Amino acid sequence: MSALLSFVSILLAWMAGAWATDDNLPFMEYLDEGGLVYLKWGFDNVQGNITFQLTVNTTGWVGFGFSPHGGMDDADIVMGGLGSDGSYFADYYSLEEEMPEKDEEQSYTLLSMTENDGKTIMTFQRPIETCDEKDFHITAQPIKLIYAYGTTDVIRYHGKFRGTKEVNLLNYKPKTIPPDARYLSVKVDKVTVPPKTTYYHCKVMKLQNLPTKHHIYQIVPEIEHQEIVHHMLLYHCPSFVNETYDKPCYMGDIGDACFGVVASWAIGGRAYELPENTGIPIGGTQSDTHYRLEIHYNNPQKKEGFIDSSGLRLYYTDKLRQHDVGILTTGVFPVSHMKYDIPPKAAEFRSHGICNTSLFSQLVDPIPDLQVFSVLLHTHLAGRKVRVGHFRKGKQIDFLGVNENYNFDMQETVNLGNIKTIKPDDEIIVECVYNTLDRTQSTMMGLSTSDEMCLAFLFYYPAINITSCTSRPNTTLLSITTNQIAEYQSLMNALPQVQYISDTNYNSSVYRYGTVRNVMDTPTAACKKTNAASRLCTSWMVKAGGIILLLLSIAI
């Protein structure tokens, strides 16, 4: 009988493992840089279920979850392992940086738990949408996945064995590089980073001569000093920039005119691959173009001795794709003589930058429909939320980007999940929400890390010659002052917005009468009482029970 029970146990483990086939779990990502934490997943929209298999290089406990910020605050977590008494597994939640609590409603179902070759493999499932307020809503937007693990089966503080990665689970696009891939390396060379809180370094250069048009399809950061490199931007220069240099930025040099974004990376981001039918054009008629690489170094502790050679690797192909990609900078114009301060001690203060696309025709004509597919949202340390509203005929019709839990250390270009069409005459409003409760002085809009920004870089096709469309409230018209934050907010929103539009040749247009429109509340995902986990568990028990009864009857 003991041999039969052992056989039944093996059979049940095999049945559970059957869920982990390539057909059921077609997607995969390493969640860490060292390849020790490996996630596979798949989902069934009809049944409303999503299945995960987490493989971790440990024989201790393992944990996996979803987080709005990339940390433990408001995280939805499962933890489990294979101990001396068998498998253990449960659904947890965490409100802050402390030991998670077991959720009263267990929305996750364990399918299998095995150990093999020093690895723990945990396969589990949950409904895509649950009605448990402590469960994270899984949507077709990128989600911050978190993981942690221990070396024993005693669940305790993970220490260094943790991490986070942003992945779009329901709209996944794998990043692949063919073995014969060609790339351009755009880097600074042994820059001495001064012991300053904020330092911008610029290198104006020509890229490798490509006599015919090519497409960039992937952008990979090459970071030498992760602790100080805050963001990198590669700009296309207008035709009158014809000299190279390698020095601090914004010192009155000719390269200050280079502002057409070609590639971008910000802290927390990883490699970015464009959709397979799009590419950023280089070479051909642009083969004589100069480019400016801008690196923002953030060194709040003013450490000395950093010699840096960071930059970007641009993978390109001569097999042209269907669409040329452009990147449009929108939001608040960063630097201006018009003072724009964020007051201290504000729990929520909103800034707005507008872009009225009807003004594009002053520089480019005709204007096609612009198909937006990705966005990079950017603020500094006080930023808490960023939303990009899309308006048509004065009414909001959509969002071009939303991050309700903005994290300064997790900035990444993300796919929107579907194509958003900007038509001529549409308006774009970038809204940023700041928290300055820990500050005693006003925060200015500017370039320093301690200053603030409010920007959204929109990736779209077909590319047009417009590079930026930003605005700033005309504070020269502000006739009264107030210490009341709400009143100051209202005064700023009521001011006319001065809108700035620039093209690739550094031509510009200014419109002084822009209006801030109200951005609607962010839609929330509606839950369904699918109870998929319970149905799955019941179905699994019935099928497994039937097989066990059959085997027992044969044995008897």
From TrEMBL:
An example molecular function term from Gene Ontology annotations: dopamine beta-monooxygenase activity
Cofactor(s) required for function per UniProt: Cu(2+)
Entry keywords, A to Z: Copper, Disulfide bond, Glycoprotein, Membrane, Monooxygenase, Oxidoreductase, Signal
Family matches, as Gene3D superfamilies: 2.60.120.230, Cellobiose dehydrogenase, cytochrome domain, Copper type II, ascorbate-dependent monooxygenase, N-terminal domain
Cellular component per GO, a single term: secretory granule membrane
Any single Pfam family the record assigns to this protein: DOMON
Location of the DOMON domain: 35-150
SMART domains: DoH
Signal sequence coordinates: 1-20
InterPro entries recorded: Cu2_ascorb_mOase-like_C, Cu2_ascorb_mOase_N, Cu2_ascorb_mOase_N_sf, Cu2_monoox_C, DBH-like, DOH_DOMON, DOMON_domain, PHM/PNGase_F_dom_sf
Membrane topology of this protein: Single-pass type I membrane protein
GO biological process, one term: norepinephrine biosynthetic process
Location of this chain's protein in the cell: Membrane
Family per similarity comment: Belongs to the copper type II ascorbate-dependent monooxygenase family.
Name of the protein described by the UniProt record: DOMON domain-containing protein
Organism of origin: Gambusia affinis (Western mosquitofish)
